[in-house]
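Hey,
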Amino acid sequence: MKNTRFRIKDVKLKKRNIFLIFIFLSCSSLILHLQSLTASVFADQNLAVSATVPPHASDFQFNFSSDGQTSVHQDTTLSYTITYGAQQSAGVPTTTTIVANFSTGTAPNASHVLDYVIGSATNAYNSTQPVVDLANKTITWTISNLPAGTTDQAVTFQLRTNSNYTGPKPVNFTILAHMNNQYLTLPDQTVSQSYQFQANTGSSNSSTVTPTPPSTSTPTPSPILSSGITGVSFPSISSSNATIQVNTSHPSKLTVEYGTSPNSLSHTVTTNSFHTSSIVTLDNLEADTTYYFRIYTKDASGHITTSEIFTFRTAKKSQIPQSVNGIAVISSNGQVILSQALSSPAGFVLLPTNTDYDITVSLSRSVEITSLEALVQAGSPLTTVSFVQKQPGVYSAHLSTLTSGTYQIFIRSTDNNGNVIEQQFANLKIIDPLAVYEKSSGNPITNARIYLTYYDTKTNSYRPLSSELFGTILNPSYTDSVGKINILLPPGKYRVEAGALFYDSQSLDFTLGPGTGQEFPKIYLTKDPFNLLSLLIYLKDLFIDGAAYALQMLHSLAAAVGLFNISAVIITGSFALLSSLLFTLKSHMSLKHLPIFLAFSVDLFLKKHKQNYLFGHIRDEDTNPLSRVRIEIEDTKTKNIIMHTTTHKLGKFYLPNTFPDDVTVIITKEGYKPYVLSITPSTQISDIGLQIVLEKGTPHHSSVFSSFIAGVEEGWGMLFETFLVFSLLLEGLFFLLYGFEKVLPFFVVSFLNINLWLFYLHERTRKPLI
């Protein structure tokens, strides 16, 4: 065999191709070496390599629902459920935060209609307790480790509508639920509802009540049993301390644990006596720091309850304000009840139930606040209404009284640094209004007459109440449909005289003031329909009251020139228009037929009535004119009624003769036979019109009521001339006072009334040919 030497030039390879082949062979050898080394490492040390993939929104469960109530009234408990979880596909444990926000629901008076029900929020997964922020109205659950595959978890909480807003407008509110973790934030879930105040339900002012333990399907039931705690509030917050007011359903001692972390409540404050309303002060706090606290209560029987965790934030480092300087005014229906400086001792205010009132606060220019609230409370806050700034430094809040009792009114302010202070400026006593009942049955008496006098210490005698001294009060006044009369009186000594038709009158002395029994009396009248003296006294009082009201109205009109002028014009116009109305009763013409009667009368006077009108005279067989006979014009072709009218008291009628085709005239009246005649365009109407005699038919008997109405119409019709003359006299008087231009429209109406009257008299004297 011949040896053959391999030479590069024999295969004619280029140097570049040889270099590529060399690189390929080297890489292949390196890959084989690495594979061998990797297999050896895995075989010897059993190592694993993995990569973390962030979860998606679809890997988590999140739903928010309510108990189904959509439109609610005050004092209604609303239950909510947040269902959450992490699917197995999430792959990793997550730090999950769930937040419920109930800060919406602001009423037209700037108050909030929702309150958190203390103790209603349940624990989340792994016994995670809720943190309640009453200032920002949120509930937060922070679950440090929610494993993948943990689903169908639930937390529940409750809110309750209050009576902060008693107006007629509905308040729409939306509760929001939020959920996020270190990887993503899920879309918010919402529940929308509506609040409408319902009057006369007998509900109290209280917006915090003993909650009903909520039903929940959570797999980790909450250990919180705080049914004894009915309210938590913050009377003051500064940069270094905070005051917490805790209200309980039973006298209890308190222990408050607090700290800067919900997981580390290392400080403790304890009260030593049993109270239903306790104040706890937390001292030596850090400025501008969020604090958390939990409340333990212990009643006299040894029963201990534990609250959820609450939170607040201290003010920035600043000087602690002692009080807010300004003037506060309480008024109702334009009547000022109390006016004093906020720094003065608390004044006294007396108001009936179901009475609206306003608080206006004027602050000094040096005061800079971010919020101002009015609190009405009896041990615990019952009503909280935010002030609305009307102008720089002037704030106003609108409230309403509901249930009788003794309360305190506080002003709570928050300044720019976060300092919160409360200061009482009034004691409020709400009393039931004066009421009148029947003694035997206890039923309320409607329209009972109430006459009030007050004891004048200067003269040592009782003097009648007047609007000059007591604002807009009417004296005497009359009870409403439930036997009550809502009047506003200052503290003092009074006497009331009550009477009603067919009841014996009664007089009582009473005192209004802060003491027990110093309220409006309940008056019981004895029914006595056969007491002639009582009846005469009632009628006498009724006549005197009517005269007094008339004089009071005249005095009011005289005091207001503009109103007097308007009233004078209205009275003059009313007489002129009433004269026109009385003319229709006198003549038996309807208002819509007066223009055609006036036009016909003018044309008759000018002798231009021929063929322009279809008119006539309808009588009975005894030649007596027939009033209110119905005349209908029927189109002969279509059989449609195209026009109709009635006769007036003289038996005459008038219609415009604008018929292009043949028509049928149908004349009817109850108790008479119908009368029909045909009219063509060529029919000639005589100068005296149609002369028609109706024959008697089936007798018609008028009812007693129709006869009574006819008698009333005749009686009022006879007053036409009197009203016409009186309206002319008034117009002449007001012509002298106000000039021709203001009285001209009423002169025109009276001029038309005079012409109608004259034309009617002419028709009466014009004898038709028979």
